[in-house]
Amino acid sequence: MWFADLVGGVIVLLLGAAVVILSRQLPYHAEYGPGPGFLPFWLGLGLIACGAVILGEVVVRRTRYRGAFFQGGTWRVGLLLASLIAVILLVPLLGLAIGLGLFTAFLMRTVGRHNWALCGLIGVLTVFGIRWIFGSWLQLPLPTGILGW
Amino acid sequence: MELLQNLYTGFSLAVSPTNLLFAAIGVIYGTITGALPGIGSVTAVALLLPLTFTMNPTTALIMLAGIYYGVAYGGTITAVLINVPGDSSAVMTTLDGYQLALQGRAGPALSIAAIGSFIAGTISTIILMGLAPPLAKFALRFGPPEYFALAILAFSLLTAFEGRQPIKIVVSTLLGLLIATVGLDVVSGLPRFTFDSPQLLGGISFVTVIIGLFGIGEVLSSVEQEMRLDFLRAKFRLRDVFPTWQDWIASRWAILRGTIIGFLVGILPGAGATTASFLAYLSEKRLSKHPERFGRGAIEGVASPESANNAACIGAFAPLLALGIPGSATTAVLLAGFMIWGIRPGPMLFQRNADLVWALIASMYIGNLMLVLLNIFFIPAFVAVLRIPYTILMPLIVVFSTMGAFSVNNDLFDVWLMLGFGVLGYLMKKLDYPVAPMVLALVLGPFAENSLRQAFIISGGSLSIFFTRPISAVLMGLAILAYLYPLIRWAVKSVRQVTTAATDLISARR
Amino acid sequence: MRRNWIGTTSMRLAVGMALIAVLVVALSGLAAPSWQPTRPIEFVAPYAPGGGSDVLARTIASIVEAEKLSPVPLIVVNRVGGGGTVGTTYVAGKRGIPHILLTYISGQVSAPLMAPGAATWRDLTMIARLAIDEELIYVRMDSPYKTIKDIVTAAQQRPGAVTIAGTATGQEDHMVTRLFERAAKIKLRYVPFRSGGEVMAALMGGQVEMAWANPNEAAPQWEAKQVRAIAVARETRLPAMPDVPTFREQGYDVTFKMFRGIAAPPEIPPEAVAFYENMLKRMTESSRWKEGYLKRYMLTDAWMGSKEFTAFVAQQEEVFRRILKELGLIK
Q1: Which chains touch B (3+ CB pairs under 8 A)?
Q2: C177 vs C168: CA distance, rounded Å
Q3: Could you tell me if C133 lies within 8 Å of chain A, comparing CB atoms?
Q4: How many angstroms separate the CA atoms of B336 and B129, rounded?
Q5: Is CATH 3.40.190.150 the classification given to domain C39-132+257-326?
Q6: Domain contains A131
Q7: Chain B residue at shortest CA distance from A141
Q8: Is A45 exposed, middle or buried (0-12, 13-18, 19+ CB in 10 A)?
Q9: Residue A128 located in a structural domain
């Protein structure tokens, strides 16, 4: 776990550095008082300082960290994220409602091990629910796929 | 006497069958859309506005106002049950509400939220009825320096958060401030951190961030833990729906303080229900004798922000009705509605359309009563959601979150952002970075930055503007005290130690 | 020689094609439109609900429905942010799709000049200009300023210190401030706020000395005699406010056209442009539009068809570009 915290500290440090560099493109002063670059510049410096402190703490108190960053269930986190990303990428093909219906059925099956019938049922209900609540009722322009749904 | 006369007229209009029906439609519709993440009161009111073009203005206004404060009730439901705030003003409710739900106490959390909202709504309506014009005039004295001082005071409350590593609170705050700078800068008109992306020009929507951090982040953390997958089924008995006596004792002052803070922030044209709920929650935590209970399922941590956001909704009507100035994005939509119905709110309204004003005020009493009854009646049904196995509930939470993020701007770009913030929320939780300071900074950051720069423009670059105006000076003084408080406490403590040591020494010599 | 020959042929061809195109457009204007929308039209309002654009879109949608001007409904969708650039750029990306419309106002011409990556009018099809809104300077009733001359005198005594509030930086209120400064050879201190509501709150609360507002934004306070209108940036007086003089009358040539129009994605069929032009033209002839919208919001009828509107917007962009350069906001 200390390694994860170390990585976190490095990310904060690098983010701060990037923010400082990018903020130099914005005017620091305005005609009166601070300009648009003022706050970002100091935020960047603050992040750099925080990153340094975190790294320092990691090095000093390394023994205090327990547990592993990756756990037995981390694969489910990856699975969920991968399938949601797939759904968004496949929107032009499937449309949003059908994509999310498949997502629901898929996760119920893989993570919950429910039987196929239930997964299918909830999946179909999800599709119709989205069409009805968000499409018909709230009139959102839902992205549709090749099936026109 | 005149007040009672007016109120009587108002009630006699508000209880007509049509008006009662549309008040009911408004509050039910508001509660449902409020519970849907991403769809806030602005969208909810704007969606139904066209239907009111041909309606009687009084009926239309009663319905739309019902939606507005109905959303504040509805936002709580998903915040408590699945950690996804249905409305941005329910963010603070998730902190303790969801913890209560995990402890099997979703029922009491929802009841106290509904009852707190009802009390807050009723008290606020009384204040609105008696004092709308003078309060609205007072609110106008808040200019950029006062808003800046208020934001600085609010930031001082951040020290109410604690953690094993204070530095991580600072990082979380800085990240929130940073996210808020993305987009077109109001004061300079220049884009910041947009990387020439037209979508980022609009900035990163607050709603998208909270759906990601809270909704998706929580789901990701939960699926990682084996035991959590089956754990969430609520132990559910009817008795458990209602708050216990201890809950009442713990919440009564929280509700009242939330109401006052909420109403006062609500009448300010530059602040809103979200800010109000933050301030109420944080000051409650600051005042509490047991601040460590907050964030671990303290019932007053639900009562306070929920009372505040409802009070703020009612408070926002003061500048709208009395001055014709919209105090929030939602009252801006209502103002558009007034125009369409051919009525001008503002100084002339109380004279020209007194009936309408009093019918609206009367309907607020009725609407709040409807909402509290409706919510308490349905709490068993809401809580039953938790009896759905988590492996079915979990994908559905993701589906609702995704649709919520999409509906923010009808764009998949926000869904991607939600996903990114979901991962960020998950990682922050894992690495012990608190999320709440980031959300708070996200709301207060632009508020502070814009008003600071506006104040400097008005004063011509002089700092004195913050200290020569009475309200600003008082708020600034309070803020400085709040920041110095730990230092003062330490100084007082050491002085006391020195004096006791000295007296001990003296008495010992005798 | 050969090159010349090709040149003349292709020129002839081009002239011929253009003639045919003109003929087609002219004929389609006369006859019933040959194109009809087949599915609901997404009507994008790129500003927040309750704002001018949103109200415009919702009004048009409801009139089109009530007067049965379109076989399909118009569904208003807010795509908010970036001073209108988010929604505008979205529509610009829907190349050739004729089932999307966009409200298009002055701010959408100026905002992309300052925000790289945002769509300009060149990335859209201009359909029609519908109305023009006015810019007025308001002061509180207890203000010492009664005429433009008073303000100019004050600004000469305290150069760059007389405050005037407006919505956003580099948008209409800021640009018309610059026009005033140029005409009177003065320097004001412009204070930007997020919305018209905040501007009025700042004026009423005495945070600033003056403010820019549209007649409709300030109507509640103006009717209650809490604010006074000093001048209107228009060629002639506003019929709804006959007592308010123009800048020109007071000796300063300041006029500004805050137009409101409709645009569509780029490269949509000319028949679709003709359909929408016709639909909107008939919409503007309805009494709901004239009484329920123009009169209520104190707007001026300012119809322009697609071609005229395109030329007008191109000309406005040049005007805005010059002002923004003077303000030091673009290079």
Answers
A1: A, C
A2: 12
A3: no
A4: 23
A5: yes
A6: yes
A7: B410
A8: middle
A9: yes
pLDDT: which is higher, C122 or C16: C122
Q: Where are the domains of chain B?
A: 2-468
Supply the range of the domain harboring residue A10: 2-64
Question: Given an 8 Å threshold on Cβ–Cβ distance, is A139 in contact with C75?
Answer: yes
Q: What is the pLDDT of residues C38-91, one digit of tens each?
A: 989 999 999 988 888 998 999 999 999 999 999 999 999 889 888 899 999 999
Are A84 and A51 in a shared domain?
no
Classify C102 as helix, strand or coil: strand
Given the cut 0.90, state whether the ipTM is greater than it: yes
pLDDT of B121 higher than 80: yes
Which residue is listed with tokens 């005409």?
C183
Using the beta-carbon criterion (under 8 Å), do B339 and C296 form an inter-chain contact?
Answer: yes
- Residues A87 and A131 placed together within one structural domain of the fold: yes
Spell B5-30 as b/e; 16+ CB within 10 A means b.
ebbeebbebbeeeebbebbbbbbbbb
> What six digits make up the tokens of A81?
């994220």
Q: Does A117 touch chain B (CB under 8 A)?
A: no
Residue environment code for A99-123, b if the CB has 16+ CB neighbours within 10 A, otherwise e: bbbbbbbbbbbbbbebeeeebeebb
Q: Is A30's CB within 8 Å of B391's CB?
A: no
Residues of B in contact with C226 (CB under 8 A): 347
Average pLDDT (B373-402) is: 89
Residues A125 and A85 in one domain: yes
- For residue B453, list chain A residues with Cβ-Cβ distance below 8 A: 30, 33-34
- C-beta separation of B113 from B251 below 8 A: no
pTM exceeds 0.90 for this model: no
The percentage of chain C sitting over the pLDDT mark of 70, rounded to a whole number, equals 90
What are the tens digits of pLDDT across the range B47-102? 888 788 788 999 999 999 999 999 989 999 999 999 999 888 999 999 999 999 88
